[in-house]
From TrEMBL:
Occurrences of domain FMN hydroxy acid dehydrogenase (ranges): 8-378
Organism of origin: Micromonospora echinofusca
Protein name according to UniProt: Alpha-hydroxy-acid oxidizing protein
Highest taxon listed in the record's lineage: Bacteria
Keywords attached to this entry: Flavoprotein, FMN, Oxidoreductase
Amino acid sequence: MADPGVPVDCDTAVCLADLAELARRVLPAAVYDFVAGGSGAETTLAGNRAALDRVAVLPRVLTGTADPDLSARLPGGVAALPVAAAPMAYQRLVHPDGELALARASAAAGVPFVASTLSSYPIEEIAAVAGPLWFQLYWLRDRSLVRALLARAEAAGATAMMVTVDVPLMARRLRDVRNAFTLPETVVAANLTRDLAAGLAAGPDDRAHLAATGVSAVAAHTADVFAPALTWQDIEWLRGQTDLPLVVKGLLDPRDAALAVEAGADAVVVSNHGGRQFDGAPPSIVALPAVVDAVAGRAQVLLDSGVASGTDVLRALAGGAAGVLVGRPLLWALAAGGERGARRAFDLLRAELSDALTLAGCADVAGARDLRTLTIGGTR
């Protein structure tokens, strides 16, 4: 958890990268690594940033654009920005207010907050302070518990249901292995029963065992609790359990995007899990155009993994995305300053996107989708 004795001033941040540096100052090294790290050699993690930086947007000129409209229709309604706060587990790990602070900041920004199955506050408490609320589902081995989570989310007022499909098992995250990472006793998976949530915290003896076996406590717990062998029939079953918009997160292959639509998805999220799952997967921004083509307007397409600025949001929109999920930058902001830090992050993102749209000659978010982009390899 962040060290309250280390003073930081979030108002000094002029970009989201500044907030990441402020977070580094206050977080314990193992916690910083847990958030920052990827799987394996972190090739995909690095690739996300490198690929986004290779996307150049061709701006239009003499369009008479000023004060662009930043609003966008996303699953469940209209958002003030084409952005949702990505589902991220155990947010109390970086700040005591955790999901509650980030949900309040998301509400103030007018964007959806996606509450994770592995939130460190229960969905009911998050819903009490959130604006637009989506619930992200990790599939548990006990289907009755899946059904119970869905019912709780709907009762709490969720406006969309997101299922993550790229975690049949948690990939080896070497920073966590080297750190024998465990959660402190004060941070739990608050949406799960006590028995399911147990096993994430560990003492010195447990840490030594984890280091010797080459796994982290979080990975070991995930293997015990998550169902590893989902199929498209499970997604069809899920579609039949809720009338809320269904969002399938974790697709890269356009064939899977098409199957998701056939199974009843209202939206798909092109994502490599922020470089935290299959190390060797392509950057999400590279996979985006083919997914957009495969979906062919039958569902919305969102982009996740690596988005860290308003320019990145514009790049995703120009590639055909309806919007993006923003992850780590919001956790860094939360670590640096709680709700105030998260509000600062959204303010910066809003200002950057407004500037990017204006400079690219776009009056609104829809106009950004008509832009063309160039990469090192040519026109996209």
